[in-house]
Fold this protein.
Amino acid sequence: MCGIVALIGSREAAPQLLEGLRQLEYRGYDSAGIATVAVEAGCIPARLHCLRAEGKLVNLTARVEAQGAPGLCGIGHTRWATHGKPEERNAHPHLDGSGQLAVVQNGIIENHRVLREELQAKGVVFKSDTDTEVIPHLVARRLAELQAGGLLASGSLLLRAVQEVLPLLHGAYALAVVWAQAPGALVVARKAAPLLIGLGEGEFLCASDTPALAGFTRTILPMEDGEVALLTPLGIELYDAAGERVQRTPTLLSGTEHVADKRSFRHFMLKEIHEQPETAALWVARHLPEPTVGAAAPLVALPLDAGLLDGLERVQLLACGTSRHAAQVGAYLLEQLAGIPTDVFYASEFRYAPPPLSAHTLTVGVTQSGETADTLAALAMEQERRRQVADPAYAPRLLGITNRAESSLGRLVDQVLDIGAGIEVGVAATKTFLGQLLAFYGLAFALAERRGGSINGRSPEQRRALAQQLRQLPQQLRALVDDHDRRCEALAHRFAETQDVIFLGRGINYPIALEGALKLKEISYIHAEGYPAGEMKHGPIALLDAQVPVVSIAVPGTVFDKVLSNAQEAKARDAQLIGVAPEGPDTELFDVVLPVPEVDELLSPLLTVIPMQLLSYHIAAHRGLDVDQPRNLAKSVTVE
Ligand code: M6R
């Protein structure tokens, strides 16, 4: 949700800033802008070059190529609009009245209205509707006061002014500031929004996320909450919120998975759907050891501390969007496989109406990005309210399930289950959803084994049989993805003009119906709803007619016959029926079958989700839409 970059060093900043923004464009693409500081003929103040453009990054790139943005230091921003329409005047960077100071920000300044009114009362004229614009005005005014007191312009003065302004800002932010009077300095700060510093040779690149740094350096220094840094070509001065100097050792970015590459696929989303067999193969290799005869080896190898899992009585899952759908499947697994009571919450709701505290409870934050503000805030609140209780039974136990172990989530929770799916660029989550599901299978197996003789859940023999079936998953997924890619492409034209689609599922496949509807909505802009199939007759059935396709997930198991009956009810109202089901006499009622192999019902979501993803993808692609960057959305939602 907005991406920021900032560079200082000894080469032209603009090309690297644009490249960084290209890597961060998945975070927002309503507008983009950069500001560079160029010392011309040795003159101070230097000249600030600020270029901004509405729409995607290509528009800004064209402007930079045409007009130029010289300078060895600069900041950049790609925007997902919160305050103010996606117009050029609301694009970042925002400047102070003199045009000498520029700021980019990711987050929300919650008290911006009050600050704006105070500044306006002092004669400040605002040029945008954004919350961010208060920052350059506040910093510039503080700088003017300090200079009036006899202090000379310098990077240290800029740092001091920013440090003194930050306590006035309420909310979450990551920001970068440059000042034409201190052209060799860059000041960055973060509070509850991500910001990383990449260490190059005689240069530093700051960014909201690792993809912007991957081609620049592997040595990074993730900033902690409340920290502020002054960067010059000579080094970093890092300070905590109290203004104390901080020394921290940088870390190394691992692997090559931080680099985004579409390969020969038309869209990142399609590539990421096709990568799911590898996601599964990696998970099987890491966590499902081959059974050894006679040995009491665990079914799953999950690197979790005993302190998190011992004596657990309850699990609560916090997540948003697709991650919440994974959590809903997870809850089903934890209850049905491991026999442990589990609740799922929208993270955005949990924070403001938390349930009564329960003892011996594991709280799991599920977020592929590890940066979703609602999920982080809910987890932090849970951690805090449990810390207030003296009884150790209520002590916080926090686990994160994420694709970004190095994210803010990773730093907040006690332990992380890294789904290791590799970078996902498409805004619509696909392979990370599968990775989250697999993490829940692992967790459910681990808890089931730990609870051994539990009266609930599946027996050890049933669990062994399930684990054996799971080993087939990578091959099953390979065949399924290839097959449904062709089938869904051929089918897509039939739904290109459809207005509404209903997705039905029951039991463990109800969240997959929700996920199918969400995928279709977000990338094709077709209205879609997911329902528990048995709920249709309690209202939504009134929507059905020949114009409303119904996608029904009907797999053998506890509710197979019931789902087929619910599908019949829809057919009787002339709905076009698409069945995600095994082929055979039972499923002949469907107009179209998207076949899935028969597996234990508990494993079926790992397969039924594939036709959902591919159907949505091909409908959106057929409609000629921007599948990877759908309107109004962003990959990582770092505002509440
Ligand atoms: O990074 P997270 O998993 O926390 O993101 C949560 C949602 O914003 C996300 O799943 C969103 O619903 C996706 N666009 C779904 O495709």
About this structure: The chain has a mean pLDDT of 92. Residues 326 and 404 are 16 Å apart (CA to CA). The chain is about 35% helix and 20% strand. Residues 486-640 form a domain with the Rossmann fold fold (CATH 3.40.50.10490).
